[in-house]
Design a protein that fits this description.
single chain; alpha/beta; eleven-stranded parallel β-sheet; globular
């Protein structure tokens, strides 16, 4: 008999006798409570993880309300035998060797570097339409003419991964088109290391690349390096995305006449970050254009390090760069340093409606005959060791203080990067109000909580990152590593003023946190469904929780992680509402929403999306929002 099977059998007997010895005095009472309180829940084997959760709920929650089905459904699906088996592995720190079966059995979000490579077809053009997650390493290398087309590649895939290492390397006149690549995905990664390196002629077009992706992760290392006039165009690149990161390392380094065009790059994105390290370094006659780059974005952060340094007659144009964005930070370190006859033109650069920050350090230092123009440039900029020759500043914006009269508070959006209806005023929660419902759909991958017996034995801190990467097979600089790091950073962030916070990976931990803040007499709520999302809806009957009084709540929001992880925090001075949501035309009920109104916003950042959308500032107005799909809020029971 297989050793693992023997282990499972032994765990079954162990679990059975442990359950009888430790729980015999409470089983009959728990079952009686379950019959009274949980008639709407599916009947569970009393030995399962879910049955244990029901007993824990009954013990911790003092009212007679059953555990809601939307919360119960997120509990671990592990059987008693599997739970005991994986708990033992976690205790022995040997879970990594069984990660595939663990992820499958526990319904986790795991992905591994196991996609097959596609062999190139010599001399033939390729059309990859509606294609998913493949590796194209060395594909198209040394090709003469022709082209490949990637249209709707990995469209709508939850985790889209593309490996284009050494793609089209040393080719001549070869064309590559990426259209609607990985659209509407959740986590998308692309690796373009040494892409088109040493290529002559031809070009690449990235159109609608990774639009509306939640977490894009792109790497262009040594892309077009040593190339000769291989033109690249990035149009509507990573537009309307959330928390993106793109790295252009040694892009077009030592290239000859390599033009690159970035049009509407990162448009209306949230916290987009781009790094251009060694881009065009030592290049000859490079011609790069950044038009409407990071326009209307929220807090874009871009870093240009050694961009065009040592180059010869390079031309760079930044038109409407970061225009109408919210805040944002750009750093130009050693930009065009030591170059010859370099030309740069900044038109409408950094015209953020909320103050951003730009740093130019050693910009053009030691350059020969530079020509740099700043026309209609924003404020709050720092120029350190800047070349004093060939620089022209025209229409440089002076900072002016906003007046109270200029702040709108009508509830109408005043900046389009904030989705209409995402934030609204409390006065709109009245029967008969017609308003836009934002996109409340959950775009996270489906996952389950872990039993606390397992989650409590797993590492969960940046100090233990190496152990976490081993368990979940996260390679260095991989997307999985970034997913883990992002979650840890959010959970380890210091709480804001008056906030109590905790990240929970089990339902039991969530219950404990809510009870610790609000007491044992609590109720957890969420919006019923997503009907009406992104549409005009009418507000029906409205009910104020706790009589509509200002109260305290605990809100829990999902974080992307291999297992279901929630960031829960106490929210003081709020009013919580339930409201029927009606079809505007038929007046039929289509949803039942939960909304929370933050009464005290004085500690919020002036650049918070709510103030951007509603046109006010911290402490001036209350701010309301819906509880989105799979998020939830806890409050004292009425």
């Amino acid at each position: 008999m297989d050793r693992s099977v023997k282990l499972k059998i032994s765990f079954l007997f162990f679990f059975f006798f442990f359950f009888l010895s430790s729980s015999s005095s409470t089983v009959s009472l728990a079952q009686t409570n379950e019959q009274r309180k949980d008639s709407l829940l599916p009947k569970e084997n009393p030995f399962t993880v879910k049955a244990s959760l029901v007993r824990y709920w009954n013990k911790q929650i003092s009212n007679k309300l059953p555990i809601p089905s939307f919360l119960f459904s997120k509990a671990s699906p592990l059987s008693a035998v599997d739970a005991a088996f994986f708990t033992s592995l976690a205790t022995q720190k040997s879970l990594s060797g069984h990660i595939s079966s663990f992820c499958s059995s526990a319904k986790l979000f795991c992905f591994f570097d196991s996609k097959p490579y596609l062999a190139p077809s010599p001399g033939k053009d390729a059309n990859f339409a509606v294609y998913n997650n493949k590796k194209f390493a060395d594909y198209g290398s040394s090709r003469l003419g022709g082209g490949d087309n990637f249209k709707n590649y990995s469209d709508g895939v939850n985790f889209a991964s593309g490996d284009f290492t050494k793609y089209s390397r040393s080719s001549t006149g070869h064309r590559e088109d990426f259209n609607s690549y990985a659209a509407d995905g959740n986590v998308a990664s692309g690796n373009f290391t040494s892409y088109a390196a040493g290529a002559t002629g031809g070009g690449g077009t990235f159109q609608n690349y990774m639009p509306r992706v939640n977490v894009p992760d792109l790497r262009f290392a040594s892309y077009d390096s040593d190339g000769n006039n291989h033109k690249l165009s990035f149009t509507s690149y990573v537009g309307d995305t959330n928390s993106g990161k793109e790295a252009f390392i040694s892009y077009a380094k030592n290239g000859n006449g390599v033009p690159a065009e970035f049009t509407t790059y990162g448009d209306t994105s949230n916290v987009i970050g781009s790094s251009f390290n060694g881009y065009g370094e030592s290049g000859n006659a490079a011609n790069d254009s950044f038009k409407a780059y990071s326009t209307n974005s929220n807090n874009p952060n871009n870093n240009f390090k050694n961009y065009g340094a040592g180059g010869n007659t390079g031309v760079d144009t930044f038109t409407s760069y970061r225009n109408s964005a919210n805040a944002g930070t750009d750093t130009f370190t050693s930009y065009a340093k030591g170059s010859s006859s370099g030309k740069a033109n900044f038109v409408n650069y950094g015209k953020s409606f909320n103050e951003g920050k730009d740093t130019f350090k050693e910009y053009g230092k030691g350059a020969k005959d530079p020509s740099v123009g700043f026309k209609i440039y924003g404020f709050n900029n720092s120029f350190k060791e800047y070349s004093p020759k060939g620089v022209n500043f025209a229409g440089y914006t002076k900072k002016s203080a906003p007046t109270v009269g200029s702040l709108k508070a009508s509830g109408k959006s005043v900046n389009k990067w904030v989705e209409e209806g995402k934030f609204f005023r409390e006065s709109m929660l009245k029967e008969g109000t017609v308003m836009k419902m934002p996109d409340i759909r959950d775009k996270m991958p489906g996952r389950s909580f872990l039993p606390r017996t397992i989650s409590s034995k797993l590492p969960f801190s940046t100090k233990e990152l190496s152990d976490l990467k081993t368990i979940f097979h996260a390679q260095e600089n991989s997307t999985m590593e970034r997913v883990i790091l992002n979650a840890l950073a959010e959970c380890e962030r210091a709480p804001s003023q008056g906030e109590t916070k905790r990240c929970v990976g089990s339902v039991e931990d969530m219950i404990d946190f809510a009870v610790s803040v609000l007491g044992h007499n609590v109720v957890v709520r969420t919006t019923d469904n997503v009907v009406g999302s992104k549409e005009k809806v009418m507000i029906g009957k409205v009910k104020g929780i706790n009589g509509g009084r200002v109260t305290q709540s605990v809100s829990c929001h999902q974080s992307l992680y291999p297992y279901l992880l929630y960031y829960c925090h106490s929210v003081p001075k709020v009013r919580v509402y339930e409201a029927d949501i009606l079809n505007v035309e038929t007046k039929a009920k289509i949803n039942h929403g939960v909304a929370i109104c933050h009464i005290d916003t004085s500690a919020w950042s002036p650049g918070h999306g709510a103030f951007v959308a509603l046109g006010s500032g911290p402490g001036r107005i209350e701010v309301c929002h819906w509880i989105f799909e799979n998020d939830m809020t806890w409050a004292t029971a009425d």
